[in-house]
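R.M. (postdoc): so does anyone remember the format we settled on? I'll just put the structure tokens first.
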């Protein structure tokens, strides 16, 4: 009986430490992503992720940002100039491809965007960016 109790305690400890580590990994990625956002994305999507009306779309509460991760990874890698409505609005500016960012930087900046400006969504991993990059256009 005592033994089972110790095993359960140990397992609870492992779960706890694991959760702590995941939180720290997420926070580190968000911190790195913020620096990239300030340098690369802020000029168009603005400090609060609100964008510029009719020019650059907002990232806060955007169905793109909160939706399919592969799609937003693709937009960073290849840019976007479809001029299709984004959440029922049109934007006149184009977004260039960000070929200078590596997989880690794209994962970090998108993890930051998905966890800022009132957004709450899962992290983007390096593996997910790699998978989209390896696909043909
Ligand atoms: C030159 C201005 C500019 C820069 C810099 C820029 N974007 Fe964009 N972004 C746009 C425009 C304009 C669109 C919409 C294009 C369209 O409608 O065809 C867009 C679309 C998007 C979208 C999909 C639509 C949405 O609102 O969710 C995401 C996500 C996004 N950008 C994220 C980023 C991130 C992250 C960075 C930095 C790595 C960045 N952008 C840098 C102008 C920019």
């Amino acid at each position: 009986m005592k033994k089972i109790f110790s095993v359960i305690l140990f397992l609870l400890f492992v779960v706890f430490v694991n959760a702590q580590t995941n939180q720290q990994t997420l926070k580190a990625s968000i911190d790195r992503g913020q620096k990239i956002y300030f340098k690369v994305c802020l000029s168009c999507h603005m400090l609060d992720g609100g964008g510029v009306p009719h020019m650059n779309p907002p990232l806060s509460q955007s169905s793109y940002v909160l939706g399919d991760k592969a799609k937003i990874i693709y937009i960073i890698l290849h840019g976007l100039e479809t001029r299709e409505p984004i959440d029922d609005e049109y934007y006149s500016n184009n977004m260039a491809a960000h070929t200078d960012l590596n997989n880690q930087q794209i994962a970090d900046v998108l993890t930051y965007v998905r966890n800022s400006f009132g957004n709450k969504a899962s992290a983007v991993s390096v593996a997910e960016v790699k998978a989209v990059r390896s696909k043909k256009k």
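R.M.: ...and that's the designed sequence above, right after the tokens. Also worth knowing: Residues 40-41, 43-45, 56-59, 62, 64-65, 72, 75-76, 80-83, 86, 91, 93-95, 98, 109, 113 surround heme C (CB under 6 Å). Residues 2-45 form the longest helix (44 residues).
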